[in-house]
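## Example pair
The file below holds two records. Each record gives the amino-acid sequence first, followed by its structure token line.
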Amino acid sequence: MIRIGVVVALPAESRTLTRRPLRRGKLLAVRDTLHFCLSGSGPDNAAKAARRLVEAGCNALVSWGCAGALEEHLQAGDLILPAEVVNVDGTVWPAHPGWHREAVRYAEALPCRVSTGRMTASGGIVHGREAKRTLAAATGAEAVDMESGAVIHTATVLGLPALAIRAIADDAATAIPRSVLDALDPHGDTRLPKLVYNLARRPSDIPDLLRLAMAFKAASATLRAMGPHLHAPGKF
């Protein structure tokens, strides 16, 4: 029996999967064949969550959530189903071929653009056009996130199938406002009082923040549309 374990970094991303609240580091069994774990942001947290899911009996892993575009053809709300994830040192971790084909087949019926291009792993938030352009040139990737590499690497080491399902939340030209970056806690959650304070000091960040919020809304809609695939992933 296939038991899918889903690693999701942030509460806002987890709400595209379930209305039930997730506690960081704790597992939520939606059914015997589907478990979620809220990891917190970053590769270390993602790897720990992946191993918790495996220890609980999951034998297939998914990295779920948002990603940043590195190439200009990707827009907010586009779905990314990378055939492989590349680390900054050049190490490549492939998604499970059969599962990847099933996911792409499902996604092609959704009202969003789908890309299967390479994604890269990052240890921190990549923001700003120049930083994204440099990373794209170094890795050949068209999108980036902080957790998928750790999840797929963990699965590869353990001999398990894995898949990354991501939606674009910021395009290649988008710079995440400094007010937002400075308000993030170590787990990637936004400290609201700090954000309000920052915006009061930098009101010029407000338009960028609103654009980012609209982009996240588009990404969330795409993830919700892809969610049923986790309940019926087909044979792989």
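Second record, same layout:
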Amino acid sequence: MNTFLSVFVTVISLGTIFGCLALLIWCSRDKMGMEEGAPTGHTYDGISELNNPLPKWWSYLFVFMIVFSLVYLALYPGLGNFKGLLGWTSSNQDVRSLAEYNEAADTARTDELLVQYDREMIKADEVFGAKFRELTYEDDGTTYRAIADIAHDEDATKVGQRLFLQNCAQCHGSDARGARGFPNLTDGDWLWGGKPEQIKATLLHGRRAAMPAWGDALGEDGVREVASYVLSLSGRKVDAVEAQKGQARFAVCAACHGMDGKGNELMGAPNLTDNTWLYGGSRAAVEDTIRHGRNGVMPAWKDILGEDKIQLISAYVYSLSNGK
């Protein structure tokens, strides 16, 4: 934070603590000039106020909390940009990428810095890493179990499901049925292939698909005609003349989707004949896709999760459309 905010936070924090201390001292003094326990003359609803001091336990507790607050703020970050005497931090700050985080984590371990997130990750790997390896490796401890075999292991798929919910559900949904622009992983329709190793490759390295915009090249009439032909491939009722004209223009699409419109897993080009639509199958949605194009990105998880966890997630995803 900038210098102004740092000073502002420091003044407010210390001002509040010392203000409470001043209030405690002020309240502990007898300013009435009266004998302890004597009536003050203030009566409300039949209840008289007596000149009694603050309870000792209450005062001691107040003093303890003030001292505790000052010690805590001295040891840990909390006063603006002051990092605390212990050098503790909740996480590596100001990182902008995974590479920067890994570099910061390595530096923290080398310098023995108290980075809480790093310490918890190391502890988690010590506790759970062995379990992940037990579920993903053969008895020799060096060879991965086949993903199809792991998919039939109830304990392994339960772990894979939890990893999926933590990392994949934000896009694909907790039930893995996807949403507009995010594939349904339960229906057996795969852009990049649904074989075990293809699923794993998708998770490891990510995918980047690009449907170019054809609006300028085709014009509005061309967009409408190609949309009619594309819709006809899945058995939809369209204007036959428009569809025929669209078929002639479809040559620009065939390079990715094939002359038969059945797609190409090597390029992530969808099958246009099965009536399964990633961005919507209405005429308006199809025309919008042709006119403006689409860009889909599946992030790579290898450096984030590691191959052991990806092996379990791959098995879980594979089990969704292939049974257990």
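Notes on the second record: The chain has three domains: 9-28+50-89, 136-206+300-322, 208-298. The beta strands are 39-44, 47-50, 207-211, 294-298.
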